[in-house]
Amino acid sequence: MFFIYFAKSKKNNKIYVGQTGRVPEERIKEHNQSGNTWSKNNGPFNLIYYEEFKCREDAIKREKFYKSGFGKRIKKAIIKELDG
């Protein structure tokens, strides 16, 4: 299985959109332990949303969608719904 996920920074509320072939909770742990500059500057993160796909190609397409103009609006609507 493959996933796209939204991770929210506890530090500055920025939202990271990613895709992975691993369980999203485990991927968030990796982000929080990462030496990656962006993760280091913006972490730690909480997993706030994910979607599951059967193939990587579909997950990559969905990730790109959420990073596009219209997709960003949909992402914001999802986050707003989650925040209540």
Run of helices and strands = EEHHEHH
Number of helix segments?
4
CATH architecture: 3-Layer(aba) Sandwich
Give the biggest sheet: 3 strands, antiparallel
Class based on secondary structure composition and strand pairing: alpha+beta
How would you portray this structure in words?
- The N and C termini lie far apart (29 Å).
- This protein has a single domain, classed as 3-Layer(aba) Sandwich (GIY-YIG endonuclease).
- A hairpin with a 5-residue loop joins strand 1 and strand 2.
- By secondary structure, it is an alpha+beta fold.
- Strands 2-1-3 form a three-stranded antiparallel beta sheet.
- The protein is globular, with a radius of gyration of 12 Å.
- The longest helix is centred in the C-terminal third of the chain and has 15 residues, at 69-83.
- It is built from four helices and three strands, in the order ββααβαα.
Brief descriptors of the model:
globular; alpha+beta; 3 strands; single chain; GIY-YIG endonuclease; 84 residues
Topology:
Blueprint: E1 2-9, E2 15-20, H1 24-33, H2 37-42, E3 45-53, H3 56-66, H4 69-83
Antiparallel strand pairs: 1-2, 1-3
Brief synopsis:
The protein is of the alpha+beta class and 84 residues long.
